[in-house]
Fold this protein.
Amino acid sequence: EAQVTQNPRYLITVTGKKLTVTCSQNMNHEYMSWYRQDPGLGLRQIYYSMNVEVTDKGDVPEGYKVSRKEKRNFPLILESPSPNQTSLYFCASSLSMGSGGIQYFGAGTRLSVL
Amino acid sequence: SQQGEEDPQALSIQEGENATMNCSYKTSINNLQWYRQNSGRGLVHLILIRSNEREKHSGRLRVTLDTSKKSSSLLITASRAADTASYFCATAPGGKLIFGQGTELSVKP
């Protein structure tokens, strides 16, 4: 089954404790992206990757890191989480970025930073 | 700034009624997409309409696109309680997909 898998689904952590949210897709998609969703602010893109070893900042990259060492995986790293990073996070993938390709979303990771 | 803006922000209807949501955007587009999100879950792609298309159907969904007015509408006919969700339009000026704020649809049984 074609899917984007995020883990964990729920995470509670404390300020400053490094964490990684994993994302994996099995559709051989080139384009992967991370979003955060906050009430009243909609979906905002954090980082995206157009292919292996190619990543770029989205609209709200501060406090986040990503890597794309393999085509299928695109982990999101919070080196020193802060309470303002409490949010609902989504990973998404698509065949390509051009012309607004259809994106497939993971189920989401709800993160609370205390 | 927001590329797509949905209207209304929230819509409450009875089961069996039709639901219409609108989306306006600012710059020229190649296509426009609609997505659905059940509470707290990932977005699911519903339908894509290209800039040279005026109307597209998929089951109970009907999407229209008016490029002269830079607007699109999503019509859900004969709504069901299971249609309760948030609906987002998305466009890709410059290639990157940008989502609107969404319309929260509530369908009461």
